[in-house]
Design brief:
Largest sheet: 9 strands, mixed
EC number: 6.1.1.7
Keywords: Aminoacyl-tRNA synthetase, ATP-binding, Coiled coil, Cytoplasm, Ligase, Metal-binding, Nucleotide-binding, Protein biosynthesis, RNA-binding, tRNA-binding, Zinc
Number of helices: 24
Shape: globular
Subcellular location: Cytoplasm
Helix content: 25-40%
Catalytic activity: tRNA(Ala) + L-alanine + ATP = L-alanyl-tRNA(Ala) + AMP + diphosphate
Number of strands: 35
GO molecular function: alanine-tRNA ligase activity; aminoacyl-tRNA deacylase activity; ATP binding; catalytic activity, acting on a protein; transferase activity; tRNA binding; zinc ion binding
Distance between the termini: 87 Å
Oligomer: single chain
Structural class: alpha+beta
Length: 887
């Protein structure tokens, strides 16, 4: 056996850079890390792996310019949040290093390069004796290739589970690579069934998984070979760094330790490593600080739904962990710059956005500290209530409410309850947890099956030129390809087909701009087809979906005519989105980013990230700013250049769009500069007018503006004026500008009338009270005042209950009233009757069924509502019977 090699000492930045450089030297294009927020995949809550950003290449919807790709992709997984801090490897946010082959190299090259990267002195330089590989038993090729590069047979282990399959779509065997960390990490007995590479242990650490995607898992459960075989690999950066830095867990690496050290400063005397319990809290804070920093930086914001709920939950767990360390003040927002400094070499945008990220975290932190106090109050109330019960056990449902609503870890609740001498129903809590996980699982697909390659379109590589930037009619476009019924054909007589021309003026849908519409004519000017849609084919051509009226043939020339009116309206609205985007940044701040758009001929829709609602004043400023640019008659110019030059021009890149070597930079004067491949007007004055029609929230931290321009804006304002005119007629005012003052006057009059009505109702209630309070009945051992009276509703009944309590005229009060087919019941109980065991809540539940309703309340006051006023008297009668039978 060879002597152990001396392990290199590499930082996390060096490991990441070395991995990417290795595959770059082997012909791979380095893809930048995409946003954590999926923009084209609604089935994903977060980008959760490197391959998640590559699916468009693997499913054949897009053919990459280079079939060899590599990346270091930031990812979030939230299915095991409860285990973060308790295990060595669980992270919410992590980086996945990966190399990918889209129909290019396969097993032999992937295995050869993996071994070279791991063992070559020029790269990782690991001792090959410390490496173990698992393979699928039937994958004899993988085993053969591992042996060929120098892996000993006894270091290759067959594992039945080594087959990557997430349902219908691409699947195949995989090979996992494990690093032997040595006997000091061997915490299992030699004969333990998990003590092997691939088992659940700390000694053999999985560092890389190579998936050989070679089959299509069909709906009938069978597997067929894929037309093009792919490679998909994943290497966890945090794990690899822990090996280079000889760290017991991922948390003792340079990716986490600076965060932990900073947290120690906030916790005072509490230090990392002083106890297992404290270490868990430190790790939770370090992990969650990274996750929320990156998530917020990518545009996700705290909320009660979706990914916003995940962020809120992570922030709350971190704050509770801080409390366990004795940190009482807001601290989490102070860790944002620390995260930014750790990751600055590859993610400089974190520090660039730190002020905004800190603002969001600080706001949420302050909010939760108030909630935390509410949660403690609820927990204290639960403990007080259980003192008077027979079970002496806190409900698991109540413990789950503390966990789910207030962010209290179950262990924290149990600790408080046990200190008070009681217990928590563990089984009931686990049942509630299981229900929540089932709901979450049902709300999302367990994993999105990747689409199967549409091989026919991938194979079509006919060049096609888009000419619509300068010309909306092509008189001699040659029809190159016809796809009909998933076959390449030479001619079609009718029906729906997909076609590619050598050149076309039809815009293919992209960047929110809808596709052009229009017609296809033959050489004689005869209509032969209507263009219904245009999308990009996998190799980038404009793929036209057409409805055919007469025969079309490959290699014939045709005239392609775009609907100019449709195109013009879309172009105006597209330019308006650019003006709107920049105006939002100017008014709301640079943290505002486009989160999606739709450019139709009749309106535009623009989604953007923003923390909180947009005030009416700011919305008006945005609208005024857009119109100001229109009235300035700014020239709209387009320049084709390279990315670097475009960035130097100040061009804004949207999302994580992958731009080619050549890019189009669209500028409206000096006001707006963006990368954009869409269609635009030549001067902003063509928009005529811009009018916002609505602004609303559409998700966690995402707002939506809908607007119109030009003729649509005129029609919108004209309709608004007509509505205002009708209102003026109804109010009998001569001038439109007098409408607001007349409405204010009417509102004042209404308010005065409502006050008079309330005063009269109070007087009537008092008169009724004086008579009903005189009618005291005996019900068992209690004095009872009960009756159905005519008042405005529950507020009046509560006022009567206050008067009754002050007068002390009976033990129990039961009142009912009805309004608009609705029934209300109120029960009040004196302190003396409560001591005898009577509770208002119990009594209201016993009689509420008479009004087809339900209710509850405190021991001294309870109320109920229902939809059967006819049952009120029966409810009063049943109240008397209930008291008569009370023991």
């Amino acid at each position: 056996m060879e002597a152990n090699l001396i392990m290199k000492k590499l930082s996390s930045s060096q490991v990441r850079a070395m991995y990417l450089e290795f595959f770059k030297q082997h012909g791979h294009t380095v893809e930048p890390s995409a946003s954590l927020i999926p923009h084209d995949d609604p089935s994903l809550l977060w980008i959760n792996s490197g391959v998640a950003t590559m699916e468009k290449y693997f499913d054949g919807s897009v053919v990459p310019s280079n079939p060899r790709l590599t990346s270091s992709q930031k990812s979030i997984r939230t299915n095991d949040i409860e285990n973060v801090g308790k295990t060595a490897r669980h992270q919410t946010l992590f980086e996945m290093l990966g190399n990918f082959s889209v129909g290019d190299y396969f097993k032999k090259e992937a295995i050869k390069w993996a071994f070279e990267l791991l063992t070559s002195p020029d790269w990782f330089g690991w001792d090959k004796e410390k490496l173990y590989m698992t393979v699928y038993p039937e994958d004899t090729d993988a085993k053969k290739y591992w042996e060929a590069v120098g892996v000993a047979p006894d270091h290759i282990i067959e594992v039945e589970d080594n087959f990557w399959d997430i349902g219908q779509g691409p699947s195949g065997p995989d090979s996992e690579i494990f690093y032997d960390r040595g006997e000091k990490y061997d915490f299992l007995a030699p004969d333990d069934p998990e003590n092997y590479p691939g088992g659940e242990n700390e000694r053999y650490l999985e560092v890389w998984n190579i998936v050989f995607s070679q089959f299509n898992h069909k709906p009938d459960g069978t597997y067929e070979p894929l037309p093009r075989k792919n490679i998909d690999t994943g290497m966890g950066l945090e794990r690899v760094v822990s090996i280079f830095q000889d760290a017991p867990t991922n948390f003792e690496t340079d990716l986490f330790l600076p965060i932990i050290k900073k947290t120690e400063e906030f916790s005072g005397s509490t230090k990392y490593g002083s106890s297992k319990e404290y270490d868990v809290s430190f790790k939770i804070i370090a992990d969650h600080a990274r996750a929320i920093t990156f998530a917020i930086g990518d545009g996700a914001l705290p909320s009660n739904v979706g990914r916003g709920y995940v962020i809120r939950r992570l922030i709350r767990r971190a704050i509770v962990a801080g409390h366990k360390l004795g940190i009482q003040d807001d601290f989490l927002y102070k860790l944002v710059p620390v995260v930014g400094e750790i990751m600055q070499s590859y993610y400089p945008n974190v520090l660039e956005q730190k002020d905004f990220i800190q603002k969001v975290v600080s706001s949420e932190e302050k909010r939760f500290n108030e909630t935390l106090n509410d949660g403690m109050q609820l927990l204290n109330d639960l403990i007080e209530n259980v003192k008077t019960s027979d079970s002496k056990v806190i409900s698991g449902k109540d413990a789950f409410k503390l966990y789910d609503t207030y962010g209290f870890p179950f262990e924290m609740t149990k600790e408080y309850v046990n200190d008070a001498g009681f217990e928590v129903n563990d089984e009931e809590f686990e049942n509630e947890m299981k229900k929540q996980k089932d709901r979450a699982r049902n709300a999302r697909s367990d994993a999105k099956s990747m689409g199967v390659q549409r091989d026919l379109l991938v194979e079509i590589k006919t060049p096609s030129e888009y000419t619509g930037y300068t010309n909306l009619t092509e008189n001699d476009a040659v029809l190159k390809d016809i796809v009909y019924d998933e076959k390449l054909v030479d001619s079609v007589n009718d029906g729906i087909a997909e076609v590619i021309f050598d050149k076309t003026p039809f815009y293919a849908e992209m960047g929110g701009q809808v596709a052009d519409k229009g017609v296809v004519k033959d050489a004689d000017g005869k209509l032969v087809a209507k263009v219904k849609d245009v999308q990009h084919a996998p190799n980038g051509q404009n793929l036209h979906t057409i409805e055919i009226f007469s025969s079309i043939n490959v290699n014939n020339k045709y005239t392609l005519e775009v609907d100019k009116a449709f195109h013009s309206k879309v172009s105006k609205n597209h330019t308006a989105t650019h003006l709107l985007d920049q105006s939002l940044r100017n008014v709301l701040g640079d943290h505002t980013h486009q989160a999606g758009s739709l450019v139709e001929p009749n309106y535009l829709r623009f989604d953007f990230t923003h923390f909180g609602s947009v005030t009416k004043e700011n919305l008006q400023k945005v609208e005024d700013m857009v119109n100001e640019q229109i009235f300035k008659e700014l020239p709209v110019k387009t320049v084709e250049t390279d990315q670097e030059t475009g960035k130097k021009m100040g061009a804004i890149a949207l999302f994580d769009s992958k731009y080619g070597d050549k890019v189009r930079v669209v500028s409206a004067g000096d006001f707006s500069v963006e990368f954009c491949g869409g269609n635009h007007v030549k001067n902003t004055n063509e928009l005529g007018l811009f009018k916002i029609t609505s602004e609303s929230g559409v998700g966690a931290g995402v707002r939506r503006i809908e607007a119109v321009t030009s003729e649509a804006a005129f029609k919108y304002l004209n309709a608004q004026e007509q509505t205002l005119g009708k209102t003026a007629d109804l109010l009998k005012v001569n001038q439109l500008q007098d409408v607001p003052s007349r409405v204010e006057l009417l509102q004042k009059q209404i308010k005065d009338l409502e006050q008079k009505q309330t005063s009269l109702e109070s007087k009537i209630a008092s008169q009724q009270a004086s008579s009903i309070f005189d009618d005291v009945k005996v019900a068992g051992q209690f004095n009872l005042i009960a009756g159905v009276i005519k008042v405005s509703g529950m507020d009046q009944l509560r006022q009567l209950a206050d008067t009754w309590r002050n007068k002390k005229v009976s033990d129990v009060l039961v009142l009912g009233t009805s309004n608009d087919d609705k029934a209300n019941l109120l029960v009040a109980v004196s302190d003396e009757a409560i001591k005898d065991g009577v509770k208002a809540g119990d009594l209201i539940k016993a009689i509420a069924s008479n009004i087809n309703g339900g209710g509850g309340g405190r021991p001294n006051l309870a109320q109920a509502g229902g939809k059967n006023p006819a049952g009120l008297q029966d409810a009063i009668n049943d109240a008397a019977k209930w008291l008569e039978n009370f023991k």
